[in-house]
Amino acid sequence: MKYSAVVDSYEKLQGHSGRLAIRDVLAELLKQTPEDELPMLVYLTQGKLLPDYEGVELGIADKLALRALHTASGKPVELVRETYIRSGDIGTAAEKLLEESRQESLFSEQLTLKRVYDTLFAIAKTSGEGSIEAKLKDLVNLLNDASAKEAKYILRTAMGELRLGVADYTILDACAIALLGEKGHRKALERAYNVSSDLGYVVQLASQKGLKGVERVQVQIGKPIRPMLAERLPTAEEILKKMGGDVAIEYKLDGERAQMHKNGNKVEIFSRRLEVITNTYPDVAEYVRQYVKGKQVILEGEVVAINTVTGEYYPFQELMHRRRKHGIEAIMKQYPVAVNFFDVLFSDGQDLTGRPYSERRAELERIVQVTEFTRPVPAKRTKSAEEIEKYMEDSIAAGGEGLMIKDPQAVYTAGARGFGWIKLKREYRSELTDTIDLVIVGAIHGRGRRAGVYGAFLLAAYDDKKNDFPTITKIGTGFSDEDLEKLPKLLKPYESLVKPANVESQLVPDVWYKPKVVIETIASEITLSPSYPAGLDAVRKGSGLALRFPKFTGKVRDEKGPEDATTVKEIVEIYGMQLKKIKSE
Ligand code: AMP
What we know:
Layout: H1 3-14, H2 19-32, H3 38-45, H4 62-73, H5 77-87, H6 90-104, H7 113-125, H8 131-144, H9 148-158, H10 168-179, H11 186-196, H12 199-215, E1 229-232, H13 236-243, E2 247-252, E3 256-263, E4 266-270, H14 282-291, E5 296-305, H15 328-334, E6 337-347, E7 350-351, H16 357-367, E8 374-376, E9 379-382, H17 385-397, E10 402-406, E11 417-425, E12 436-445, E13 454-460, E14 469-475, H18 481-491, E15 495-496, E16 503-504, E17 511-513, E18 518-522, E19 525-529, E20 544-548, E21 551-556, H19 568-584
Parallel strand pairs: 1-11, 6-8, 14-16
Antiparallel strand pairs: 2-9, 2-10, 3-4, 3-5, 5-6, 6-7, 10-11, 12-13, 12-17, 12-18, 13-14, 15-17, 18-21, 19-20
Helix pairs in contact: 1-2, 2-10, 3-12, 4-5, 4-6, 4-8, 5-6, 6-9, 7-8, 10-12, 11-12
Bound molecules: adenosine monophosphate (AMP).
């Protein structure tokens, strides 16, 4: 196949943005391509040389590209540089610079797809001493035989900047039409792609073996499976309803997803994006070798950083230390990890992706040995929303970020987001675990049952910069009848007819108090508030901070003076800490 035919199609693609038009151009291109060259064509069109999991990377430096262009065009270095900078794209620069010089060279050899692919492959694979010169030579040879248009795409591809805007699924659409003669066969192609993650292979198979061949594609050890993804619903009740009332609930841990392929003694680990991460987690590979039964197994699990003394899990960020190319052995000991396995997709000769969750989970429990570093992720079956909420708390307490709720009947839908798995994160707030000491600066008369006594108090924090007391909340819960009797007596000496000068408040209570009495409170969270002046403008212009669902703990802190109350600065800090938690969820 001539490379010029490929380039003609690329040029047409640049003129289209609609998915259908792109699909039709690709379908034409696939039809023209000989069977044995289909994988090359597909990978190049994706801007790759092989599927990602093979780890062969395109991407020569722009310096090298400029040198090659200078040699191939015979134009001065400065002009080449300038043209590149002005156009902002190596391809456009190449086309411009080569246009004149190429008109004379009508007799040059015509480039083939295979030659372009093989040369780019060799360039990507060359490393070590003298590799720059070798790459340069290869690239110049290729450019010498290329037309200006061909050079444009060769250089873009070599730099890893092809960007044709062609989605993988559009290539599958085109393949269904061009090679299987039927738009509807796209589903089968998609499945084959999702279990093999190799688009070139799937397209070639369609051409060689037709629909039957595509349908027979099986999960294979060593080829990563595109991961199943979870939907999201806000409440346990909705999830129960969606799944028919009977669900499996699992801890959702905050680590890195890993797909582990065990083949005898060899273990390969893939990331969620299907890149090989075996070198990041040699310890995980060892656990799989030792603690997972079976010769050929594909499992999925969450790798989590662990404190080996307490057994606690750390949040995801802790795993960042493992992202090293060198010295991993030492780092591994410093930042140990544990694996919580959550699925098994292949086990001794059997593809399990078509089996229901309940069967896969049973198999998982059979093959995974529970050790300090390995276990099936904690899970249970339930029909009750209440139990789900309780389990959520357990998960959070164990360092998790929520729950994964799984439909016991659901198969493993590779590469798809669906309602077979639904994630339930805890509400987007974090419990304030610390108590907050606040000063009573006012009281509001009660109604109903509280008629005749105070129904709520107005509380303030201490602003140590301004040396005053901005209000932060009203509080009405947590008071016993005894408290409600005792407190007014305690407060009586500090009553004031007007707002005390050192109190800031928009809200006007029935009674003002000089800031003296400090009480201990807890609350579910700190929120931004338009009605309270504490921390005004500290987080957002025009907003202060307030306590949500505050509650009296029953303790009057009579050992504390008003200046010993929680300060505005501390409140702002606690708010910031909450925010961090929300972001990491
Ligand atoms: P998210 O990234 O928020 O869409 O959540 C999905 C991710 O949760 C998966 O990719 C896994 O890395 C992670 N995860 C943690 N625990 C589980 C579990 N028990 N089952 C499935 N995925 C889990």
